[in-house]
Batch of 3 targets.
Target 1
Amino acid sequence: MKSLEDGTPASPIASTNQNEFSSIMEQYMKRIALLVPFVACALAQAEDLPSGKGKDLLEKICAECHGLDVIVSQRADKDGWAAIVDSMVARGAGGSKEDLDTIVDYLAKNFAPQKKIEKAPNAAVDAKRGVR
């Protein structure tokens, strides 16, 4: 029988179990390594949402079907968000009417269309253009 460097006898069974264990651990580590970016991304997205009434409902109800990035990349007024939420309900999203209304209010408040900022007239620019 062979012995290990420290003089203990090497068992073929222990060696096989050690190889199996190493293989299993390697597989688990690969899976964990693949999941970490997705979990980190999901946590980052949740943290990026503005706080307020409806945030928790949005995370719970809307994130069941898609990432929050789909939501935060859009802009709409209250009627637009209501139509989007109605569309999601038609596709199977759940929630009470009160919960869905709260989500619409949250989205309309935090993800409304960005207002265009009108610049004040610039007399120096107008003078160069010949505008009076």
Target 2
Amino acid sequence: MRVEEAIRIARPPETVWAVVADPRNDPRWCRTVKSVDVGGERRWRAMYKPIPLRPPRELELKQEEAGPRHRLALRQEDAAAVFNVEYRLEPTRSGTRFTQVSVLAWKRLPPCTSWDPRTRCAP
């Protein structure tokens, strides 16, 4: 599955890059990330909460590629899926266009894809 979204940020690309390129800033700008533990060069773990009313999950991240202040490619992996994520920054007249492209590959289906009376999960 591929998802692409873009927003405009009223800041120059250099300022946006300084925030996005440092994984310790992820909880500041990504509402699903609760904490980050940098474990080495270009690798870190994050506790994230992508689904409301579910506990946080651990996500392993690896920086695959970084262009000079305009492109960052990451591999994110948890127990259920692998995400290849790309952030692109483009200058605009009013600041920066920030684009995120995510490609998702399931390892296994999420635990709540159909009704289960024992867990009360519904699609």
Target 3
Amino acid sequence: MDPQHGIGRPRLPAPRSRYGPISRWVSRLCGHAAGQQGLTLVELLIIMAVIATLATIGLLFYGDVTEQARVARAVADITTVGGEIDTFEMMNERLPNDLAEIGRAAFRDPWGNLYVYGTFALIPPGHRRKDHNLVPLNSSYDLYSKGRDGASHPPLTATASRDDIVRANDGNFVGLASRY
């Protein structure tokens, strides 16, 4: 049979790699011969670097998503507790002295810290939560989470207060202090 004219035995396909599609992709990328099998050390290092980069990006994304979920849960908790405080006030014609009066004494935020509540009858004016203009956030009581760092100061402009989840405008805003 004449090999120059394509007559004769048909050409057999290259043997399949036992390492799967990634090996074939890397082999093509690196210009290996069709029959060569296996990966060199450099190719393995390249694959490991790509996987490590993708894993790092995934972990960063996962961290952001879990933090957003914690903030959303704290917002929902504060909204719920605020409603319970308002109900208590309507039923008893006074605000509760602490969260224990509404059955929330040991209620913790998503970061494991206790929620902070204080009625203005018990909080001196200098210790009330304040916005960037140093105006109190609420007119009757404060309710907030200390956020991820577990630290807080009365003005929202303080570094320790930027991650707090606050109730402001008498419940019309509940969210991150940095967004208020």
